[in-house]
Predict the structure.
Amino acid sequence: MKTKKSWIQQWVFVGPALLFFTLIVVIPFLMSIYYSFTEWNGVAAEVKWTGLDNFKAIIFDDKDFHRSFWFTVRFSVAEIIFTNLLGFLLALLLTQHLKTRNVLRTVFFMPNVIGGLLLGFIWQFVFVKGFATLGELTNIGFFQLPWLGDEPTAFWGIVIVSVWQGAGYLMVIYIAGLANVPKELIEAARIDGATRWDMLKSVTIPLIMPSVTVCLFLTISWAFKMFDLNLSLTKGGPFGATESVAMNIYQEAFRNNRYGLGTAKALLFFIIVALITIVQVSITKKREVEV
Amino acid sequence: MENTRSYNGRTLLLEIVGIIVALLFLVPFYFVIVNSMKNFAEIVANTANLPSSFYLDNYTKVWKIMNYPKAFTNSLLITVFANIGLVIISSMAAYRLVRSPSKFNNLLFAAFVAAMVIPFQSIMIPLVKVADKAGLMDSIPGLVICYFGFGVSLNLFLYHGFIKSIPREIEESATVDGSSPYGVFWRIIFPLLKPMTVTIILLNTLWIWNDYLLPSLVLTSPGHRTIPLSTFSFFGQYTKQWDLALAGLVLGVIPVVLFFLALQRHIIEGITAGSVKG
């Protein structure tokens, strides 16, 4: 009787979560592994098993995928560095006793509440019309560049927007980390004659490593999965120069109707993202120190 | 780090730097809002200036073209129901997984957590097929069910960490008093979870309200469009008509910005709580 009751409880409590998780995540994930070994157009009832052909084609022949992968890597490196740098600097600034502290936090965080899609459109206007006007008014070369029009500026355009969006979020996490640094340690370092830079390097940064772990994890996964911003800002252009991997997978499956090839790309993508995040978390975790 | 010291020249300087950076941060919003109230000729002539008159025709036109009330209602329904469902299923499951740590349950928890690493793009292709077979395509309840599946991992993970910190004794005394496990959960545990529930609802709301890719795959008919979907199709159609496109953009952004400004303190605290544990 008791075991039966406990069995019912198990399924009442866990059943619904497990059901939806299985239906929406587990089954599609397993199917994507299967389809990645097939040639399937998404419609046909007949699915032709092709073994490793898709993977071979992606690794050796698919120029578009290589280009989108290389773009994603370069974009990720720039986004991870600049977003963390700006987020950390903003956090340092806003842990000072500023009178406008709360207003500033709200302002810096704001871009995060708007979805990437709408932010992309907002910036499309800023790049195309706003910067051009500023260029005419000020004659500053930066504003007169062909923003979004050619490869390097389109690349940096996307980086600027994603840093602008992400920095406020990281700022919040870094502020939380900075708030946990004990005041006594700072005092002690100051008495020992440490300069501000010494304190930052030897006291503050080692003590906020847990925040660094989280922020790196977030920026890596944002950068690799970028889709909305890419779609609304440049649509991958000019001539595919800013097409992210996420977008390439989407195009392959839903535009070219090559679902088998698309799922194979998606699976490779998953493995790469998983490996990178595991390596990153284990490296930065090691550098965390207990207070 | 100068927290203990009084307001001095250095703080003033930093304050000024902060304000300047904040103004730079707001420039994109300035451009969009100001130009959404100009006619096309004026946008082209003076992009940087304030509008010459308070011109709202763009908004009344866009309101109709975007079918704004419909899109807003769709987004609201999806966000509300996905939130309710996610809170119920993930809090219940997390409670059971914490309090009955059998081998199976530990494995289950590991599976939920591991799934957080899977990028959406890796499963979206077969998901469309599964959703089609399960009758979830082009239906708002269907999309809500998809959100149950995608949100449950993170939500369960956050509840799991929170429930672990709740002492068991409270429940034991209730059980001795004859309360059923369901009664214990709903009357004692669930109210205690409130701070985490608030965090989870805020995080889910920002995510679901702004999501574009999943709704674009699941919802196909124009009557089912959410705010991001309707802004996207609107923008695509009116790319070169900046006057209308910008008004549409402002209408798309307003609900979530108001939501944020009303709850900003909780949202920022929620992010902190969610990320430090996650």
The radius of gyration of chain A is 24 Å. The mean pLDDT of chain A is 90.
